């Protein structure tokens, strides 16, 4: 084991980086999760310019306690219904892992904010490196056909990181 060649180490580092998930700040920069100043659809204009893959993290940046993030159904998104979200966050720097392909919906939980355009819809895609074919956008409810593969990739990335760190020190 002590005879790891530099090439192997480089390979492991590249492998780890390539499977490492992206963190994407909603709106583009810190503090952007708020009522958009102009267009009421501006979060979706932003999300359409980016690509979101399974395993990526969305980062919602806002003032803790003054705003919030609710992950909701499509119906609740359209009606700005904050009654029973799937998940709710108020910590000010909310990281949400995109677990499966398909559409996801977020709204602000603060009264009146969603109605003023603080809402986000985006479609998560399967990473290109995955062995299974990507579902077409019209494939109805989001299922997770790649979760096994994703878990395996996760295990490999952890092993890769461990070996990389071991090789460094
Ligand atoms: C909001 O959602 C809750 C639970 O899903 C539902 O009972 C309620 O009727 C909805 N309110 C509106 C205004 O649609």
Written overview of the protein:
29% of the residues lie in helices and 21% in strands. About 10% of the residues have low confidence. It folds into two domains: 45 residues, no CATH class; 104 residues, Cupredoxins -  blue copper proteins (Immunoglobulin-like, Sandwich). The chain is an alpha/beta fold. The strands form two sheets. It has a five-stranded mixed β-sheet with strand order 2-8-7-4-5. 2-acetamido-2-deoxy-beta-D-glucopyranose binds next to loops. It is a lipid-anchor; GPI-anchor. Belongs to the early nodulin-like (ENODL) family. Keywords: Cell membrane, Disulfide bond, Glycoprotein, GPI-anchor, Lipoprotein, Membrane, Signal.
Concise account of the structure shown:
This is Phytocyanin domain-containing protein. With 169 residues, the chain is α/β, with parallel strands linked by helices. Helix content is 29%, strand content 21%.
Beta-strand content:
15-25%
The CATH H-level superfamily of the largest domain is: Cupredoxins -  blue copper proteins
* Integer tally of domains: 2
The class by helix and strand makeup works out as alpha/beta
User: What is the gyration radius calculated from CA atoms?
Assistant: 19 Å
Number of strands: 8
Spatial order of the strands in the main sheet?
A: 2-8-7-4-5
Spatial separation of the terminal alpha carbons: 14 Å
Using the alpha-carbon principal axes, give the shape.
Answer: elongated
* Number of helices, where a helix is a run of at least 4 consecutive DSSP H or I residues: 4
- CATH domain fold name of the largest domain: Immunoglobulin-like
Name given to the CATH architecture of the largest domain: Sandwich
Ligands:
2-acetamido-2-deoxy-beta-D-glucopyranose
Question: What's the mean pLDDT score?
Answer: 79
Largest sheet: 5 strands, mixed
Helix and strand string, N-terminal first? HEHEEEHEEEEH
The helical percent reads: 25-40%
What is the top-level CATH class of the largest domain? Mainly Beta
Poorly predicted segments: 139-155
